[in-house]
Amino acid sequence: MNTAVESVEGKLSQQFPDSRGHFGVYGGSFIAETLMDPVSELQEAYAHYRLDKEFIAEFEWELKNFVGRPNPLYHARRMSSELGGAQIWLKREDLNHTGAHKINNTVGQALLARRMGKKRIIAETGAGQHGVATATVCARWGMECIVYMGEEDIVRQAPNVFRMKLLGATVVPVTSGSRTLKDALNEAMRDWVGNVDDTFYIIGTAAGPHPYPAMVRDFNSVIGKEIKEQSLEHTGRLPDAVIACVGGGSNAIGAFHPFLDDKDVDLIGVEAGGDGLETGRHAAPLSAGKPGVLHGNRTYLMEDEAGQIIETHSVSAGLDYPGVGPEHSWLKDIGRAQYVAATDTEALDATHKLCRIEGIIPALESAHALAHAMKIAPTMGADINLVVNLSGRGDKDINTLADIEGITL
Amino acid sequence: MTRSRIAASFAKDANRKLLVPYITAGDPSLDITLDLMHTLVKAGADVIELGIPFSDPMADGPVIQAACERALKNNVTLVQVMETVKRFRQTNTETAVVLMGYMNPVEILGYKKFAELASDAGVDGALTVDLPPEEAGELVEELNAKGIDSIFLLSPTTPDARVKQVCEIGSGYIYYVSLKGVTGAANIDTAEVAGKVSHIKSFADIPVAVGFGIRDAASAAAISESADAVVVGSVLVSLVGEHGDNPELLHEKMFETVNGMRVAMDRAGEAS
Prior knowledge:
A: Rossmann fold; 2 domains; six-stranded mixed beta sheet; globular; B: alpha/beta; TIM Barrel; nine-stranded parallel beta sheet; 9 strands
């Protein structure tokens, strides 16, 4: 953390996490002793390199030349006038290499792994976007790549499985538990415990034991920084709200964090409402769960009264996770960010509208954020600017979309 | 109530190394777990580690994961596990029982209530796998207030500074994880373990138990030469997995396996 505590007092963006990874009561390092050593090694390495000028310069070079940043902040004029209220701006993370924000983080962690001398990379993936982004950076730097993926998800996301294989990664099916993202994470942790000497675990979301939540946030903060600059450039002021979807919450925290001290900018996270919060079939721990401990951190979870983690439901595989990054839990409790949910139906409707009105196919994850913007924009004046983080493109979802309409591709 | 059945077990006979079998509570049912606990005692168990089933057992290998899944099919809860210990105590007031599991069920129940119910049931120690000493202060305080030992893990990669910290905050015994991996992972290196155990003992004023990777009488006996106690889990849990539908055979196999370890450990003790 920044050592100049006096000068940053009162600034949320500089105060958290504390030295042991706590965001208020959330975060921390709830891991077995067998993982303590590699996690401590990572904490030390990240604490050092996050302030290292050469590391930062190399990261920025890769973001520009390999990822293709900065991507545009695009004024969705037709959508805005259709809605008849606030102006909708889209942060085009979908235009990054590999088609989503996930690559920001994998580039950062891969550079760190290289500096730590780790040659074997492991990762978990749900929808496959983080798996593809990890396989990509491993190919880029010639590292061995093993991706754990739930057996269910392997079937649902076949094209991404093939992409990972094309990029030289080994995809390991996970058959334990619910055979989805949370179980893939468990399995990757188990791999790490057994291979601590040569292995670096690239977690794909802003959750897990310290330093992951802060590190993944920092690597994705480029999103919020660009939104800030581009808003000033286009409109001469900061946006009135930044809206992002929240599964584990990596794109959202990256978009929110640079705005934490700009109190006039509303930060709105949109969780997966699935069939509706009232049905219990959703993936919205912040909206309808309660705090607990899972995957190395204390945070809001989807759990039963006995503390068992329950299965989640969402049309979007990338939001299908029972936990959420601890910084979101903290931002919710202190009231700095607001968390709402959009249902499957609302997200699908938003997807189709964006396709037809703006010529952009959004990822189903990102469509949740868009759905909320579409809900609130008509109630606002035309001078209000809403930024929606379009965290990924929807090419990966065409099979899901076709299935829903009963079409076989 | 005795302050600690665990301390009493270690104090009983300086020459006897303790045998600590682990089974997952509720696998395949709580009634069978209760009966198995008595069988384990008959076979020579000194302390029983009772696993609290959890949906996401990150530090466990496939054998104990499967046991958790079987137990959770019957919706076994932490409260029910403690009620089972209470039933065990109706006829056994001597054998120490340690609850071993993950944080979330404890977190949801509440630390204070957990300590109260555990104490009321006759639980002697608690080991929460994903609660390192840095985060453990509050829970340890509640458990201490009820006379329940807080047991912590040490691993081959734990640096000395942390070994000291764990020795200070922990009580009952230290649980040394004998390999880099999950439960039931591989065979262990006896000589390496012996070296580590004697190193840990230079910091610890409580006994050191060794577990993860002990699968038969021979390895139990070998480890017992350096450790104060031997923990054996996956090999017993796989017996439950295999014979859970035939309780009579299960008890027979369980007795045979655990007693075989007990006898081999005693022989090793006599020989040295």
